[in-house]
Amino acid sequence: MTMRRGLMTALLGLFFMAGQARADSYPVAEFSGLDKISTRISIFDVKVGESGRFGALKVVVRACDMTPPEEKPQTSAYVEIYQVNEQTKEVDQQPIFSGWMFAESPGLNGLEHPVYDIWLNTCKTGSGPTSGDKR
Questions:
Q1: Secondary structure class of 9 (helix, strand, coil)
Q2: How many Cα neighbours within 13 Å face the side chain of 38?
Q3: Does residue 109 register a pLDDT over 90?
């Protein structure tokens, strides 16, 4: 009986390990940004390896990954966000956010700033208008 239980546990472990698919990498991350002063929500794209602006923030995307459609939805992007001084246009050297954002849990690891909130929507193969200065 214990050998059968051990075999069953091993088979279940293999089943769950085999069921986990790798996420596919995408070249564009789509974000939503809230300007708390104007109460406007904007949707903007940032290409992986490039930067975009949302108000006084510089958003840099290092990776954007999404599981295939047949798998449980998991969309994540590794993002760095920097504060930009509007008068001098200088970008702070230290990011105010650096880490993974998850589209399925926007409140878990989105940027909460005194003026702006930013969260990940999805990863895409292409973008509409490139992320310009969204205010």
A1: helix
A2: 9
A3: no
